[in-house]
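User: Hey, my collaborator sent me this sequence without any context and asked if I could get a structure. I don't really work with proteins. Can you help?
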Amino acid sequence: MYLTYVFSIISALAWAITTVIVKNYLIGHFKPMELYILRMGLGFSMAAVILFLLFEPNLFTNIIPRLTKKIIFFFILSVATGVTGIFAWWKVLKINNGSYSTALVWPMVVLFTTLISYYFYNEKISTIQCIGIGVVIMGLFMLNIKDKGKYHI
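Assistant: No problem. I've predicted the 3D structure and written it out in structure-token form, which is a compact way to encode the shape of the chain:
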């Protein structure tokens, strides 16, 4: 359980740094699709090759036998939804400040993940999680309360 917290903090910190860098340095210089291609297409590809060579030299010989039509379909679906999610995220980030964008989008990620898992994969939702869902929804509404004569949306 301890590693869960460590990696959760690392993940959250990495996404926070990425959000601040994109908002303050990159989003004004590139269109969202250009930024996606540069970061994910070139940047991620280079990082992936380096990591594979360092940690998984036999990666492709281990993966190919496990590729079925179902796995390929879900892989393509995950790429498509990932591209859609990051593209929409950058649109929200370009329109709003970073703290508002993050406070709006990431709680909805948790909410939708919980609901999809419940309805499609029969994962259980505890009473505490139900209360948390209610708090998240209430927080999302509170984010959009009229502030100084304007709405965020």
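In plain terms: The radius of gyration is 19 Å. You can pass these tokens on to your collaborator as they are.
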